[in-house]
Amino acid sequence: MKKAIYIIGPSSTGKTTLCEVLAKRLGLESAAYVREVARRIMRERGYSRNTIADLQMQLDIMEGHIEDEERAIEAANLVLCDRSAIDPIVYAILTAPSADVAKQRQSTLFSHPAFERALHRYRESASIFILLAPVKSWVVDDGVRSIENQEKCSEIFIQVLRDLGIPYRVLGSDCQSVYERMVLTLGQAYS
């Protein structure tokens, strides 16, 4: 069974930094490393931080990630993903103007055929989800990231993962060393 490691969480929690260290340590070729797709999709389709509440933007990001993820899984036995198809679902919920709209958005994205394929993989024991929790001193506004509501965003990640029955491990402010995060992630992946 092919193994996949997903590094997820709110903005500015060190996802890309951890992924870069893991990719180097594991000697992953580019085909096995799915980098963040949100910025590419935003650039290609004219989205911005101001359109983060747009459900279509989150759907486009989800589809883009799943396409890249499926290509990587086809090409390699070990895949590392900087984010997952869960991330756009969380942001669609987080930015909803009401609880009713949040439920509607969640339902729409959960029932998308591409997400249903991904969910099957996500629930397999070979899929390792590492949720990076917020570390206040790491928050950096680069004009693209959504840095508001990090705690609420983290809570939504946890709720979505639980609702979907996806096992995960949280690494937060008690584990700020990228080396320690790498060791704990690899330990989770190879336990």
From TrEMBL:
Pfam families: AAA_28. InterPro entries: NadR/Ttd14_AAA_dom, P-loop_NTPase. Residues 5-171 form the NadR/Ttd14 AAA domain. This is NadR/Ttd14 AAA domain-containing protein.
